[in-house]
Design the sequence.
């Protein structure tokens, strides 16, 4: 999936969330419009994946309703990263490259420590 495809997927999910909120009355039209503007101004076409994954966790800082949209995306992203690191560490161990495996594991842990959840809203 490209960064623009991911951005479009998020935008589609937000549209569905807004439709649902308007249908059930849990969102006002003003709030729905503010959410739309926030998402469109934050997620710019042409952003690279790193930039995109840095701003996605901040979407729900202003609008907690967006947690239901971004949490599954961030969870899937984290699981993919964890799986890739685990596969890399296993391959290095099988090759007898224990120092490289330890460095890769440490790097993944260090990066995780600097990219922990920054959102203020908590999902239900």
Sequence:
């Amino acid at each position: 999936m490209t960064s623009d495809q991911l951005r479009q997927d998020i935008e589609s999910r937000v549209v569905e969330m807004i439709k649902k909120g308007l249908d059930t009355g849990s969102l006002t039209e003003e709030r729905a419009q503010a959410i739309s503007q926030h998402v469109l101004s934050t997620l710019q076409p042409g952003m690279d994946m790193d930039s995109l994954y840095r701003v996605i966790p901040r979407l729900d800082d202003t609008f907690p309703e967006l947690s239901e949209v971004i949490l599954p995306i961030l969870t899937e992203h984290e699981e993919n990263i964890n799986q890739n690191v685990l596969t890399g560490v296993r391959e290095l161990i099988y090759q007898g490259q224990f120092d490289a495996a330890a460095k890769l594991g440490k790097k993944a842990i260090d990066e995780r420590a600097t990219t922990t959840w920054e959102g203020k809203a908590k999902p239900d």
